[in-house]
Specification:
- Keywords: Amino-acid biosynthesis, ATP-binding, Cytoplasm, Kinase, Nucleotide-binding, Proline biosynthesis, Transferase.
- InterPro entries: AceGlu_kinase-like_sf, Asp/Glu/Uridylate_kinase, G5K_ProB, Glu/AcGlu_kinase, Glu_5kinase, Glu_5kinase/COase_Synthase, Glutamate_5-kinase_CS, PUA.
- One of its GO terms (molecular function) is glutamate 5-kinase activity.
- This protein is an alpha/beta fold and 483 residues long.
- The protein has two domains: 160 residues, Archaeosine Trna-guanine Transglycosylase, Chain: A, domain 4; 267 residues, Carbamate kinase (3-Layer(aba) Sandwich), CATH 3.40.1160.10.
- About 13% of the residues have low confidence.
- The protein binds adenosine-5'-diphosphate and the ligand N[C@@H](CCC(=O)OP(=O)(O)O)C(=O)O.
- The site of ligand VHF has 16 residues, from helix 2, helix 4 and strand 5.
């Protein structure tokens, strides 16, 4: 290990990770995303379909509604590697000229990975930068529609550039434009998964970017770091590489702080709080900076993906990093890193969230909030129970059953002796897939399930969120003493 490095570990597992088992029967991929908040009939039909279809024990993708495309979990030979290359590595931030030597070296490196039998997905930013150059704009516009228009101009040229370079090596590529909104819908997610698997098994390199034209302020990925992590989780990648214009995560922005130290290994993202400052912005064109790379790493770690931050200018390092860290003796947190392959490695979680819970937490958008009382907080987080209507005090937002919601508690409902001084007004406890719509929950909140029949005319589930569809956060120790 080099002297100026820090290794950050925290062996304490997150509370949400305790619940790692996946309920294979109710895979997120089986869920349909009804937009009708009260379609009870659809719910009954779906319940029937789910019962009929639940079969395979090992596959989380074992069934889906008859109307949805069918999915089979596929294991491809070789490692599956997602490489994300940021704007600052695709074009010069000032002139927007493509950084050809970096791009050609990336193509060469991907070709070698393919020859080694691995499957590679490339997530490439740079549509905006490429469009700016084409339109002879000196600066990125501030208005969203203008940025989207510039990206539309640049995306075609960006793909043409990649295609040209890969064609020298006879390597076919495919353009895949994604948006979070698409991927949070199970049927579209199934299609995306199947398309990726087909492309990879044909030996094609999918080149992914955000579908900028349709992305909306509130629901867009916001940056390709997150998109690459969601893609890596979805296709069960072994590695996610975030290739950028710094060699590592540092304790502070190395451009502003020459004393910043490298962080070489991270086992728990929460352990970075107070040690790493990632808040300062990245390049003028890049959108995320280091902060979104940390969000992406957390998401990928929870899905069991080893995430690496490294410099894009020497892409051949990727090959050496993979061969070094794929050796069993180098997988652990204490493994030395040779100077030539310095990078930051985020270890995959030992208690990775199953697909179903990972998707509820990271793939789906939260459609509303359920506010609970203290008894419910203890029941779900300490006693590991499902969430029942009796502990629900309020509902916010409009959502149907089977959608993901946030679970929150007002700190006014938490006993004073447990609260730390100056807590926030609300604390987010976790997320879950609801068995009832927002309208139904507002009618049954505070009640025992025995009363559902008389109020709603039916009682499909005794719980509002089943334990298997509940993903809990680690409650911040700064707000509440350990429960
Ligand atoms: N703690 C940190 N460690 C490393 N880089 C940081 C940190 N905080 C901020 N940064 C900045 O993040 C930049 C990388 O983000 P960004 O420009 O968005 O890259 P990309 O375009 O590759 O996504 C670095 O160039 C650096 O200036
Ligand atoms: N879709 C945008 C992506 C922007 C983006 O996420 O940029 P970055 O933070 O540099 O990865 C583009 O291609 O310009």
């Amino acid at each position: 290990m080099t002297k100026d490095s820090t290794s950050i570990h925290n062996s304490k597992p997150k509370s949400e990770m305790d619940e790692s088992s996946t309920n294979n029967k109710d895979s997120y991929l089986s869920a349909s995303n009804s937009l009708d908040p009260d379609s009870h009939q659809k719910k009954l039909e779906k319940t029937h379909l789910l019962k009929e279809g639940s079969s395979g024990k090992n596959s989380p993708y074992s069934f889906s509604p008859a109307s949805s495309p069918h999915i089979h979990l596929r294991k491809l030979p070789g490692l599956t590697i997602v490489l994300k290359i940021g704007t600052s590595s695709v074009c010069d931030p000032a002139t927007h000229v493509p950084l050809l030597s970096t791009l050609y070296s990336t193509v060469q490196m991907i070709h070698i990975l393919r020859q080694q039998g691995h499957n590679v997905v490339l997530v490439s930013s740079g549509a905006v930068g490429t469009g700016l150059r084409r339109l002879k704009f000196h600066k990125k516009p501030t208005e969203l529609a203008k940025v989207q228009a510039v990206a539309a101009v640049g995306q075609g040229r960006l793909m043409a550039l990649w295609d040209n370079m890969f064609s020298f090596l006879d390597q076919p590529i495919a353009q895949v434009l994604l948006s979070r909104n698409d991927l949070s819908r199970p049927a579209q997610h199934v299609n995306a998964y199947n398309t990726f698997m087909e492309l990879l098994s044909m030996g094609v390199i999918p080149i992914v970017n955000e579908n900028d034209t349709v992305s909306l302020g509130g629901i867009r990925f916001g940056d390709n770091d997150t998109l690459s992590a969601i893609t890596a989780g979805m296709i069960h990648a072994d590695y996610l590489f975030l290739l950028t214009d710094v060699d590592c995560l540092y304790t502070d922005n190395p451009r502003n702080n020459p004393d910043a130290k490298r962080v070489l290994c991270v086992e728990d993202i929460n352990a970075l709080t107070g040690t790493v400052d990632a808040t300062s912005a990245g390049s003028s064109l890049g959108t995320g900076g280091m902060a979104t790379k940390l969000v992406a790493a957390e998401l990928a770690m929870a899905a069991g993906v080893c995430t690496i931050i490294t410099h894009s200018s020497k892409p051949q390092k990727v090959i050496d990093i993979i061969s070094h860290f794929s050796k069993p003796e180098n997988k652990g947190a204490s493994a030395d890193i040779p100077e030539e392959i310095l990078c930051t490695r985020f270890l995959p979680s030992n208690n990775r969230l199953g697909d179903h819970k990972w998707w509820i937490k990271h793939g789906m958008r939260s459609s509303g909030t359920i506010f609970v009382d203290y008894g419910a907080l203890i029941a779900i987080s300490v006693q590991k129970k499902s969430l029942f209507a009796a502990g629900i005090v309020d509902v916010e937002g409009v959502f149907s059953f089977n959608q993901s919601v946030t679970i929150s508690i007002s700190t006014s409902l938490i006993p004073k002796d447990i609260l730390r001084p100056n807590p926030p007004e609300y604390i987010e406890i976790g997320n879950g897939l609801v068995n009832y719509s927002s309208t139904e929950i507002s009618r049954i909140k505070g009640l025992k399930s025995g009363m559902f029949e008389s109020i709603l005319g039916y009682c499909d589930s005794e719980d509002v969120i089943h334990r298997g569809s509940l993903v809990l956060n680690q409650i911040d120790d700064n707000f509440v003493k350990p429960l």
